[in-house]
Design a protein that fits this description.
Elements: H1 6-14, H2 16-23, E1 27-28, E2 31-32, E3 35-36, E4 40-41, H3 53-71, E5 76-77, E6 80-81, E7 86-87, E8 90-91, H4 98-114, E9 141-142, E10 145-146, E11 152-155, E12 158-161, H5 167-187, E13 190-191, E14 194-195, H6 197-204
Helix pairs in contact: 3-4
Length: about 200
């Protein structure tokens, strides 16, 4: 279960009036090229880049993670539930069948509907891990919106492929290494047109 530390829970209760005053009668404006919009009442969400925003978001999303775990639809390793790994607002849903995955997506949908939260479905995707040459179709929907199915996805900077092969992952790492190496050589005065002697001499001496 995802349980907030007792000290953190106690702090929330003690500082509840301060939290309320921070978000009471909150307004926002949009500024573009020196022009400002009319004031907009902010009724939901946390302050962007606020000191407490990360902690407040953890309080909000904690119930959703617990609901997903209690449902029993997520994947498990032995008796350990691992069906909804999360890092901040990056949440993955892992299930053994499309049926169970759809049930988990429905839990997320009902939670967001209850709290009036919108999810950008186009940024979400489904990948079915298999040893076959092609993926079986899962047909997962979020509400009435189908979630696109892809052959690979990136989670926390790590590339995963549906066939569990490492070719794409290795290619991605090599491309990053190539970019870093080119940047390093450029800093030493080496460019596509040749060597800059001033930079090279400056590096040597």
């Amino acid at each position: 279960m995802h349980v907030l530390p007792p000290l953190f829970q106690y702090s929330l209760l003690c500082w509840k009036p301060a939290f309320r005053s921070t978000y009471d009668n909150l307004k926002s404006v949009v500024r573009i090229s020196g022009f400002s919009s009319d004031q907009i009442m902010v009724k939901r969400s946390a302050r962007q880049d606020g000191v407490l925003s990360t902690s407040l978001y953890l309080v909000y999303v904690n119930d959703l993670l617990n609901d997903l775990e209690r449902s029993g639809y997520g994947a498990k390793v032995m008796s350990v539930s691992c069906g909804n790994p999360a890092s901040a607002d990056d949440v993955s849903l892992l299930a053994l069948t499309p049926f169970h995955l759809q049930k988990m997506v429905n839990i997320v949908f009902q939670f967001c509907k209850h709290w009036s939260v919108s999810i950008y479905v186009a940024k979400s995707n489904v990948t079915v891990f298999t040893k076959s040459r092609s993926q079986p179709i899962a047909n997962i929907v979020y509400g009435d919106c189908p979630i696109i199915q892809t052959e690979s996805f990136v989670h926390l900077g790590i590339l995963y492929s549906y066939n569990l092969k490492y070719k794409d992952k290795i290619s991605q790492r090599l491309q990053k290494l190539k970019t870093l190496w080119v940047f390093f050589l450029s800093a030493q005065g080496v460019h596509a047109q040749g060597v800059n002697p001033l930079c090279v001499c400056g590096s040597i001496f």
